[in-house]
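Sequence in, structure out. Go.
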Amino acid sequence: MASRESSASGTTYSWSTAGWEYAFTSTNSLPSAWDALFNSVGYALVALVIALPLGWMLAQYICDLEKVKPRLARMLDVFTMLPFAVSSVMIGLGVMLGMIRIDAEFFYSLWLTPALAHVMITTPFVVRIILPALRSIDPMYDECARTLGISKFKRFFTIKVPMLRGSILIATIFTLAMSMGEFGASWVVTRNSDWTTLPIMIDSLRSIPYNNSLTAPAANAVASVLMIIALILFISTEKFRPRRDGGMF
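Output:
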C-alpha cells in the first residue's frame, strides 16, 4: 500500500503498511475497519436470511399466479421491480422516515436497523433470479411425484431445491455482494449512528482533509478488503457452472 509523504518538491509515495494500520486502528473520529467489516458481514447475513426466502416466496407466488391470473401476476411482477426504479438513497430515506414515524429512539437503538434497507434492495434481485428458474422447471416432475404420493414438503426439498441449486447459489452471492457494497441507503440510515460499514468508512476516510497523508491509503486499504471479499464470493460460484449449458448456472 502506498503512503503519501509531503516534501518541499511536492508529494511523493512510498510502499508501506501504514495505510492498513491506520484503517484498522480506531480513532476519536473514525471506528476501526474491523468494526466496519463486522457490521458489513452481519448486515449481509441478515439480509440473506430474510431476502432469500422472501424473494423465493414472491417468485413462487408469481409463478403460480401466472397459471390462473396472468394479468395480476404481471402486476405483481412489476411491483417487485419497483426498488430497481428508485435510488437506494430514496429507499434509505423511506426506511429512516418510517423509523422516525414509528419510534425513532427504539429503531436507532437496534444494530439490525440498517439491514431493513438492505433487504428492500436485495429482495428484487432474488426474485429476478429465482423466477425464471421456476418457470423453466417442467411440471412433469411435480406431477410424477404427486402420482407416487410424495408429500409437498418432500417434493420441495428432493426435487425443486436440487434443480434450482445454481439459481439459489447465484441469488445468495448477489444478495451478499449487493448488501456488502451498498452505500446510498446505508449512508442515509447510519449517518446518525455508529453502525459504520465498509463503503461508509471509505467515504468517511475520503472526506477527511488531505493534510492527513494516511487517509487516502487507508481508504484504498478498506476498498481492497471489499474487493477481495467480492472476488471470493463470485469466484466461489465457478465450480457450480455446468459446461453443458453453455456456461450458464
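Check: Residues 6-10 have pLDDT under 50 and may be disordered. Residues 33-65 form the longest helix (33 residues).
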